[in-house]
Automatic annotation (TrEMBL):
Keywords: Oxidoreductase
The Ketoreductase domain, residue ranges: 3-186
One Pfam family recorded for the sequence: adh_short_C2
Family: Belongs to the short-chain dehydrogenases/reductases (SDR) family.
Protein's name in the database: SDR family oxidoreductase
Family annotation (PROSITE patterns): ADH_SHORT (PS00061)
InterPro entries: KR_dom, NAD(P)-bd_dom_sf, Sc_DH/Rdtase_CS, SDR_fam
Taxonomic lineage of the native organism: Bacteria, Bacillati, Actinomycetota, Actinomycetes, Kitasatosporales
GO molecular function terms noted in the UniProt entry: oxidoreductase activity
EC number: 1.-.-.-
Amino acid sequence: MARNVVISGGGTGIGRAAAEVFAAGGDRVLLVGRRGEVLEKAGVPGALTYAADLSDAESVRGLAAFVTAEFGTVDVLIHSAGGNGGLEPAVDGGDPLDAVAHAWGVNFRLNTLTAVLLTEALRERLASPGGRVLFLSSIAAYRGSGSGAYAASKAALHPYAFDLAREFGPRGITVNVVAPGYVADTEFFGGPVEETRRARLVAETSMGRAGTPADVADTLHWLASPGAGHVTAQIVQVNGGAERGH
């Protein structure tokens, strides 16, 4: 039976790869993101698209109304929207404290607030039983990200997911987090990764290669399957052994 799947950040990278996997299995997929033209070009067969700023409550309300009209019930909700706040426009002026406030605010808006608002807007639409909520975290949540802001914004998803898992468990809904390591072929770095850095990231793995969007997408697909029905409140690391569960 076809499921209704909502994927934020579905136009590129991991979100797009996940959309392709679910669509290939016969599920109905809705791609959500800030850039409508990117969603349209994603090329996922049969997928619906909806452009929205998920950090804006009014935009999320509009999306929730669209989901209600088109799907009614959401079987799988995947939060792939977010990214490197360092790629966003810098704050005007030269005050260091203003720059810090901006960096932390941007990262939490992109990576935490977007996921929270969308989840809260769709919580009553989640299939009960059988619903799946899946968050994308990062290896940075375990080891930092240099500035701390991006890592902290991803780590904040972990306790939120644990709380949701307890709350939604009686409804037969599972909530899990996938934390990828270095994944090639995404927009996270804003362009090609410098070769020395790429080689260092690959060398940290036990597998001797970068991750791919498909690696993460397949993990998300399994967590959304009936076979993972008793897996909840977990953080699944997909990093080739670069971080060993500490």
